[in-house]
Amino acid sequence: MKVIYIAGPYRDVRGEWFVRQNIRKAEAAAQFVWQKGGVALCPHKNTAGFGGLPDCGDDVWLRGDLELLKRCDAIWMIEGWTDSSGATGEWDYAVQIGLTVLLSQQDVVDYLMAR
Predict the structure, then answer these.
(1) Measured between alpha carbons, how far is 22 from 35 in angstroms, rounded to an integer?
(2) How many CB atoms lie within 10 A of CB 87?
(3) How far is 105 from 107, CA to CA, in rounded Å?
(4) What CA–CA distance (Å, rounded) separates 17 from 91?
(5) Backbone angles phi, psi at 99, to 5 degrees
(6) Is 27 left (phi over 0), alpha (psi -120 to 50) or beta?
(7) pTM for the complete prediction?
(8) Which of 10, 36, 23, 7 lies closest to 105 in space, CA to CA?
(9) Contacting residues for 45 by C-beta, under 8 A, at least 6 apart
(10) Where are the domains of the chain?
């Protein structure tokens, strides 16, 4: 099975409600991947609600996400990713290590069907 990393905005300066919306969008993308026969790695769900954890600044999450990303087969850049410094960093890293980059649901389907 192919593992697809879900990349999109998490943080939001407007507040926690907006963070939760970002998590929900990533969750929906992850569900789509699973439904289409792939394995979704959704960092949004992995650390949801961990903001403010003592001794864990943003750099901890971002470095950890890149570690997870390098173990995947592809990355799916979901809506809003271009406005996210974390997701654009994930994009850069994915391109650097030669991962397949997916930009739409159809890209995901095509990628998974190409087995």
Answers:
(1) 20
(2) 22
(3) 5
(4) 25
(5) -75, 155
(6) alpha
(7) 0.93
(8) 36
(9) 23, 26, 27, 30
(10) 3-113
The yes/no answer on whether domain 3-113 falls in CATH 3.30.70.3040 is no
Q: How far apart are CA 45 and CA 26, in angstroms?
A: 8
Q: What is the mean pLDDT of the chain?
A: 94
What pLDDT digit, counting tens, does each position of 65-80 carry? 999 999 999 999 999 9
Secondary structure in 3-state letters for the chain: CCEEEEECCCCCCCCHHHHHHHHHHHHHHHHHHHHCCCEEECHHHHCCCCCCCCCCCHHHHHHHHHHHHCCCCEEEECCCHHHCHHHHHHHHHHHHHCCEEECCHHHHHHHHHCC
For residue 112 the two structure tokens come to 């998974």
